From TrEMBL:
GO molecular function: transmembrane transporter activity
Keywords for this protein: Membrane, Transmembrane, Transmembrane helix
Lineage: Eukaryota, Fungi, Dikarya, Ascomycota, Pezizomycotina
Membrane disposition: Multi-pass membrane protein
Pfam families: MFS_1
A cellular component term, taken from the record's GO annotations: membrane
Transmembrane helix in keyword set: yes
UniProt keyword Membrane present: yes
This protein's name: Major facilitator superfamily domain-containing protein
Length: 529
């Protein structure tokens, strides 16, 4: 008995020393891990931030150039293309005639439709690649492809004597490299989800959008000043900033769990056929491996779709609600054109209206959302119910803001409506955070489905809004705001869908058990060390 007791005491002492050692090691590693996560999130934010602010410096000048080219064509006054050439001095020449504005609307409508094709065609393959080979590879490729497409559009508008203006409809083909701008956002959100837990994810997403909003607050005044100095200054600075984002995207530390790639390799090795020859370099073996992985990824995608209409139907409803509330950046450019037509402002001045929305959005993300989150926590609401309530509130504000913009008779009224809409820009991140918490597994492929859904939403909404905009131009007066009435009605439909959703805080961690739900996230975070 004594010897047995002594043995137990010795083992207990050894276990105790090992446990203390592990705890000390964990405490030592925790600050390093936190620093690394902050570095990864900041790097991902910076890549997307640079890409967005760079593209925004190009968007308004391109609209101005396209309008000038159309003015030359419809008016046929003065030397051809004098206003659109790099050396032209009349870039800010007013041109509000109805034919020009309608053609400009058609040009933008079909460009946006074409711009969605890379996401629809490459979204799933890029999501599979991101889940199997890494997030940073796809992020870098999408930044490169998106920048290349913008460069092509600039070249077409620079030399209208050589290239027909409608050739810009083909430039999104270059975005097939990486999947386009939507893929950039999708991969950045996936990176953030990899290194954050559920309790902090919504706030982290809010800070992410706040960083974008800071760019939005700064970009329009800066673009205004640069366009006043020279339209090409804005274009070339924007392209340079976008180019900087590319190496940043490629150089980020990988956040995809290493265990996932080991499991994929093991699964491939368990196939009945020998996928590789003895030397492991046979082209046929490589092709077979690629086909096998593509089939596995497609099966994973179909499995997720099945879950969305059965076991995970709440996530399916959230995706459906986003289908009615996704308009893309063309909605902002439509707002600028609306102000340009309604009040006769120059493009650079009309672009400043967006700054009002961005300022309000910045206040929302940095102050109001954290305050609302803490306040709702004090009233006992869990993370899921908080996100759901804030989603509903955002939808209501979008409805009010849309009707206010549509019916505005004065610039002050319009800016008020834009500000109200700015208070609702958190809608997308609340929906995304809620979907992520409801489905803790398959994050990469879920975000791919989200990107495809967003593309479909834009594919449906933007042509509808564009047709209504042209009809409003024909009718004149307050009818010019017709697309914003439709936007408010679409948000009303989204709100009706969200009203049916009920979430259960007790179900956190997944229906398959907390251990299963937690393990993928825990393993991914550990792999970032």
């Amino acid at each position: 008995m004594d010897s047995e007791h002594e043995g137990q005491t010795e083992r207990t002492a050894l276990i105790g020393r090992d446990s203390d050692s592990d705890n000390n090691a964990a405490r030592t590693q925790r600050p390093k891990l936190l620093t690394r996560r902050i570095f990864i999130i900041a790097g991902a934010f910076s890549a997307r931030f640079l890409f967005l602010i760079g593209s925004s410096f190009v968007d308004l000048p391109l609209l101005q150039l396209q309008e000038n080219i159309l003015c030359d064509r419809f008016e046929s006054t003065g030397p051809p293309y004098a206003y659109s050439s790099p050396l032209g001095s009349g870039w800010n020449r007013p041109c509000n005639q109805e034919a020009v504005q309608k053609e400009l609307s058609v040009l933008r409508q079909w460009f946006i439709m074409a711009d969605l094709l890379p996401t629809l065609l490459a979204g799933v393959p890029m999501g599979i690649i991101a889940d199997r080979y890494g997030r940073t590879l796809v992020l870098g490729l999408s930044l490169f492809g998106g920048t290349l497409a913008v460069v092509a559009s600039v070249l077409i508008c620079t030399f209208p004597q050589v290239f027909p203006l409608r050739l810009i409809w083909l430039t999104p083909i270059l975005s097939l490299i990486g999947g386009g701008e939507v893929t950039v956002a999708t991969i950045v959100y996936a990176i953030v989800a990899d290194v954050t837990d559920e309790s902090n994810r919504s706030v982290t997403f809010s800070l992410f959008v706040a960083a974008e909003t800071i760019g939005g607050v700064l970009q329009n005044p800066l673009a205004y000043l640069m366009m006043k100095a020279g339209i090409w200054i804005s274009v070339f600075v924007g392209l340079s900033i976008m180019a900087i984002s590319i190496p940043l995207g490629f150089c980020l530390p990988e956040t995809l769990g290493k265990g996932a790639r080991v499991e994929d390799t093991s699964a491939a090795e368990q196939q009945p056929e020998d996928l590789l020859t003895d030397n492991g370099e046979n082209d046929h073996g490589v092709l077979q491996t690629a086909i096998t992985q593509a089939k596995a990824g497609w099966q994973q995608f179909l499995h997720l779709l099945h879950l969305l209409v059965t076991k995970e139907h709440q996530v399916g409803l959230l995706l459906l609600s986003k289908l009615f509330s996704t308009f893309g950046k063309d909605a902002a450019l439509m707002l600028v054109q609306y102000v340009h037509i309604k009040f006769g402002w120059e493009w650079a001045e009309a672009g400043l209206v967006l700054s009002a929305q961005q300022i309000v959005s910045f206040i929302l993300y940095t102050a109001l959302i954290p305050f609302a989150t803490n306040l709702l926590s004090k009233y006992g609401l869990g993370p899921r119910n908080k996100d759901l309530l804030l989603t509903k509130a955002s939808a209501v504000l979008q409805i009010v803001g849309g009707f206010t913009v549509a019916l505005a008779a004065t610039p002050a009224a319009l800016i008020s409506g834009v500000a109200i809409s700015g208070l609702a820009t958190g809608y997308s991140i609340f929906v995304r955070s809620l979907m992520t918490s409801l489905m803790v597994n398959d994050i990469g492929i879920l975000y791919t489905v989200i990107s495809i859904q967003e593309a479909l939403g834009i594919f449906i909404a933007n042509p509808l809004l564009s047709v209504l905009f042209r009809r409003g131009i024909d009718l004149g007066g307050r009818w010019v705001g017709l697309p914003f009435v439709m936007a408010a009605l679409l948000y009303t439909a989204a709100l009706c869908i969200i009203a049916w959703i009920r979430v259960d805080e007790a179900g956190e961690g997944g229906d398959d058990g907390s251990s299963d739900g937690d393990s993928p996230r825990r393993g991914t975070q550990e792999d970032t060390e």
